[in-house]
Design brief:
3 helices, 4-stranded antiparallel beta sheet
């Protein structure tokens, strides 16, 4: 018997209406033959459909745990420079921001006393 792309049938012997581990079993491709076999062994018939295996690369459990919350995929911007002016104004330049806007902010507070980095 060959297993094909068509549904395959499993005939299982039963005792008191339940399938038994030690009972007779047969894999069959033909429905009529499967029905006859079930009648002969006083059993049940199950249809087994082939399962398509999905090609994938296994990922370790630690990688799954690290992805919870997905912070690495959408990181918060990292500050790369910051200054506090004695007048109370604070400025922070974040990674990816326009450097010209930062330079303009620093120049606007140039008249204040010394800036603290």
């Amino acid at each position: 018997m060959s297993i094909t792309a068509n549904p395959t049938f499993l005939a299982v012997e039963t005792r008191a209406g339940r399938a038994t581990l030690g009972g007779r079993r047969r894999l069959l491709d033909d429905l009529q033959e499967a029905v006859q076999t079930v009648e002969e062994i006083d059993g049940r018939l199950y249809a087994i459909e082939p399962v398509e295996v999905v090609a994938m690369t296994p990922v370790s459990a630690s990688a799954h745990v690290r992805l919870v919350g997905v912070p690495a995929l959408d990181p918060e911007p990292r500050p790369i420079a910051g200054m506090t002016c004695p007048c109370g104004a604070r400025g922070t330049l974040y990674e990816g921001e326009n450097r010209d806007a930062w330079d303009a902010w620093v120049e606007s507070h140039d008249g204040c006393s010394e800036m603290v980095a």
